[in-house]
Amino acid sequence: MRVATLILLRRECIVCMANIDDVAKLANVSTATVSRVFNNSPYVSEKARESVLKAAKELGYEPSILARSLAMKKTNTIGLIVPDISNPYYSEVVRGIEDVCNIYKYNIILCNADNSRDKEIQYIDMLKSRWVDGIIFHSDYFSDEIYHIFKDRKIPLVLAGRATSYDIPYVVIDNRKAAYDATKYLISQGHKKIGVIHGDLNGMKETVDSVDRLYGFLDAMKEAGLKVYDELIKESNFKAKGGYMAAKEMLMGNVKPDAIFAFSDIMAMGAINAIFDAGLKCPEDVSVIGFDNLDLAEVTRPALATVAQPMYDIGAVAARMLIKIIDNKKISEKKVILKHRLIIRQSCIKRDAQKI
Amino acid sequence: MRVATLILLRRECIVCMANIDDVAKLANVSTATVSRVFNNSPYVSEKARESVLKAAKELGYEPSILARSLAMKKTNTIGLIVPDISNPYYSEVVRGIEDVCNIYKYNIILCNADNSRDKEIQYIDMLKSRWVDGIIFHSDYFSDEIYHIFKDRKIPLVLAGRATSYDIPYVVIDNRKAAYDATKYLISQGHKKIGVIHGDLNGMKETVDSVDRLYGFLDAMKEAGLKVYDELIKESNFKAKGGYMAAKEMLMGNVKPDAIFAFSDIMAMGAINAIFDAGLKCPEDVSVIGFDNLDLAEVTRPALATVAQPMYDIGAVAARMLIKIIDNKKISEKKVILKHRLIIRQSCIKRDAQKI
DNA sequence: ATGAAAGCGCTAACAG
DNA sequence: CTGTTAGCGCTTTCAT
């Protein structure tokens, strides 16, 4: 009888759910006891526990995380801001973060900033007002402006994929060294006129991935005493079409590249197609190397040589760090630099000296 | 003086934020007035509004969405469950949802079910306990089990990418017709031994995309009086490597296909590479058609013919429907079927009759 | 081991 | 137009 009444009562409510009072009443205990049962407190008699569980089941009760968060001032939620989830690189990072968060019972609010700084800031505000316990921020730049916004917000923060000189933990690869390695490899294969397809350089003012990588490229070229052709350094947008256009321009220019280094696999794939469309062959006429080592790199033809980033790990490590910080645990290292790897595949070929 | 005290007080608090009381005190008004200001109530004097805003700014106050949600029993958040964000198809759907949600000031909790039904159910529970206002569920199947779970949970729900006979709104394309169209096109080009690479068929028991599409394929084959070879119907996993393996098996078998219809562009790309690796040419020896029309389809070589799905719109329409349902507005149509489009590109060629 | 009660930050009658 | 007050559902002392 009582149960029926309770259920009927609840029916009128929009969010049609039993709450802790209902359970307490039905189980003939106090709300405190119900709370204890659902928080696995040891100080509950077996008898009380059972009747609470029974009542909860009967009413279809589940604790409201909302109310709990408010009471505990802890949401068990982290915010994640990425520039563009439709980029497979980020999907993979997200997977790493997700897996770790699942282990530690954290939820994620994923924010797709759409490569817009305004949106990033908007999302930071939103996450703050939702009391997320911390934020993982993945962007290819980290400006003073963003730094100050975060500083004002006072939320635990970990940077993924981007280093900074500010005192903020991050997990990255050594982009400069990675680009250096890739370029050096191309040079070792006899390539001399090497083109680059990079992303936004942000006027070289702030540190962005593409700037690091471009420096790495220049390091290697300089070391080898090779000429760097301005016409072979093209800006693009990390998309396949962008890579295609950039490569096309190069191939139609005065200085023909014998190799192209694209700062993402997707752009590299575009470049390979531009080479085909120009009536040339990859790698016979132009070698191509990418960056990221997406799954796709392995199955394209020619298979794409590339610099492998540990995308999943970047996410996973960032998440581990953030959760430790939230829990006020010591983190052994605030600046984590993960290893990159050069992956050689068919899109690069050794160039004979005489052919040049 | 007063301000300083307040701020100091707050410092001790873990979530170091000013709350509505602080603002009310500093502005010399009641909390109700502060609340009114932040909810744009017209019944506030200009004077009060100003001093509230000033105080809020001084204290860096932002309303807690958490507390607001609890008080209003509305979170302005929707849950989104997808099988695998690393699949570009889903990224694009997510973008559509996001854009609409941004307009209507909804937030999204994105759940990546990792193609696991257990995880899906887990996420449904989580979303429920977070009081999301509604859920968009994108999966390639919708089983009785899942239906009943949702029914018990009583949360507004919209299905994306999957039709159902249950009384649940959905937005989809006509998968059967789409596959029929693609197959018919291949047949019209003179192909006879057509292979198929599909996804999980779930024992043909529940309706999943691949089953619909397979039926569409069979419809067209039957209509044309063509023989369907079991050896040319291969199951795969919607990934490039899977498509590669499936195509390889076909090409090494007794019955050589003259065309392959892959149920996703990614698998189609894998198939094209398998064709190359078998020493054959696409489209000269084997034509390939995909499904989805990802950005990538346009930039691969040969460019990939495919069945275009309006991915972004599937997301956007689903989000619009859900928000209307949440707001108790009439929705004109509960079952939305969006248009697919056949996109012809170089990976399909006309086969001469004599060559077969 | 258990209950009463205060409080988390906000909204929404209600009364003025 | 504004303030008072009673919740929203949960956790957490503090008694018992």
Account of the protein in words:
2 copies of one chain form a homodimer. The N and C termini of chain A lie far apart (92 Å). In chain A, strand 3, helix 8 and strand 4 form a beta-alpha-beta unit. With 356 residues, chain A is of the alpha/beta class. The radius of gyration of chain A is 27 Å and the shape is elongated. Chain A is built from 14 helices and 12 strands. Chain A folds into 2 domains: 126 residues, Response regulator (Rossmann fold), CATH 3.40.50.2300; 135 residues, Rossmann fold (3-Layer(aba) Sandwich). In chain A, helix 2 crosses helix 4 and helix 6 runs parallel beside helix 14. The interface between A and B is large, with 55 and 55 residues. Chain B binds a DNA duplex (16 and 16 nucleotides) through helix 3 and helix 5.
